[in-house]
């Protein structure tokens, strides 16, 4: 039985700011971060009738890897649709793509993929891109209860939770189950895109987290020098490695909006397997990072 609760919380001092870190990257060696929280329901539920898991998304998705772990644990066939696979990646598998393949993933490249055209029968489980499904509430409620327990134990009066968002699923359900403010910043698309994602899962705006816009518009997956710099600075000063797609945007946004009268709990959502590929890309593009 895989244990997916009570990840540690530690406090770091970074550039004059004291910030708590919820280390969900340490939940489990194979099944960690926000994807493990979002998929917790499917792990615990007895799906005796299911033989196949289908999902879709990018070719280096953290969710893709976590879904491959879930399928391997459940002994399901795993079919994953993506609209593009670079020839170099096909010939030289690495990162999430490599490890998902090793877990038995059957990946299908389809430039015109539309989930509405997927054929689902009684033996097939379909999970939307990034684990953006209502069942994600199950594991995220457990996370919210851990945060409540932490706040109560240390009697922290003014606490805000912060995390960067892709689909915003984790942030949404955290706000639903917490009485304190949950802050998030969009890393895929803009604030309007994120709001649309919230409404797809919960049409009660009172349950929606507070969106803080990043310092500029980022194109998902594109390399930005300041993102690698904040990633490396945090790792050097705290020995904690964060994801290179979401967390640099998250940290740069949080640090520019810190209120010294408030304590912050940053959710480390894992996903660092993909850093192998990202670091190589940064070193190839920017000479100073070699």
What is the structure about, briefly put?
The chain is of the alpha/beta class and 290 residues long.
Task: Describe what you observe in this structure.
The protein is α/β, with parallel strands linked by helices. Helix content is 38%, strand content 18%. It has helices spanning 33-44, 62-74, 87-91, 95-102, 137-153, 169-177, 191-201, 225-238, 247-255, 275-285; strands at 9-14, 17-23, 52-56, 77-82, 105-109, 124-126, 159-165, 182-186, 210-211, 263-268. The strands form two sheets. It has a six-stranded mixed β-sheet with strand order 1-2-10-7-8-9, with helices on both faces. Strand 1 (9-14) and strand 2 form a beta hairpin. It is globular, with a radius of gyration of 19 Å. It starts with 8 loop residues before the first strand and ends in a 5-residue tail after the last helix. The mean pLDDT is 95.
Average pLDDT across residues?
95
Beta-strand content: 15-25%
The percent range for helix content is: 25-40%
| SSE string, helices as H and strands as E | EEHEHEHHEEHEHEHEHHEH
State the secondary-structure class.
Answer: alpha/beta
From the alpha carbons, calculate the radius of gyration and give it in angstroms.
19 Å
- Major sheet: arrangement of strands: 1-2-10-7-8-9
Largest sheet: 6 strands, mixed
Instruction: State the oligomer.
Output: single chain
Please mark out the parts with pLDDT under 50 across 5 or more consecutive residues, or reply none: none
Number of E-type strands: 10
Termini Cα gap: 42 Å
The rough form would be described as globular
């Amino acid at each position: 039985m895989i244990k997916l609760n009570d990840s540690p919380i530690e406090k770091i001092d970074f550039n004059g700011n004291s910030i708590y870190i919820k280390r969900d990257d340490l939940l489990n060696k194979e099944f960690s971060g926000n994807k493990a929280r979002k998929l917790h329901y499917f792990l615990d539920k007895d799906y005796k009738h299911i033989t196949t898991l289908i999902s879709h998304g990018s070719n280096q998705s953290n969710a893709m890897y976590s879904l491959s772990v879930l399928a391997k644990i459940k002994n399901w066939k795993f079919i994953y649709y993506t609209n593009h696979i670079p020839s170099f990646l096909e010939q030289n598998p690495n990162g999430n793509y490599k490890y998902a393949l090793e877990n038995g993933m059957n990946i299908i490249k389809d430039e015109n993929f539309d989930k509405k055209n997927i054929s689902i029968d009684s033996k097939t489980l379909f999970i939307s891109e990034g684990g953006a499904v209502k069942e994600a509430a199950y594991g995220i409620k457990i996370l919210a209860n851990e945060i409540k327990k932490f706040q109560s134990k240390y009697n922290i009066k003014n606490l805000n939770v912060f995390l960067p968002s892709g689909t915003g699923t984790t942030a949404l359900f955290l706000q639903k189950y917490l009485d304190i403010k949950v802050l998030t910043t969009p890393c895929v698309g803009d604030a309007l895109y994120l709001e649309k994602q919230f409404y797809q899962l919960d049409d009660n705006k009172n349950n929606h987290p507070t969106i803080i816009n990043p310092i500029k518009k980022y194109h998902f997956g594109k390399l930005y020098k300041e993102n690698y710099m904040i990633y490396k600075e945090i790792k050097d000063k705290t020995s904690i490695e964060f994801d290179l797609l979401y967390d640099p945007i998250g940290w740069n946004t949080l640090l520019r909006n810190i209120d010294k009268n408030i304590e912050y709990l940053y959710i480390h959502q894992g996903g660092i397997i993909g850093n192998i590929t990202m670091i190589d890309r940064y070193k190839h593009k920017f000479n100073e990072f070699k």
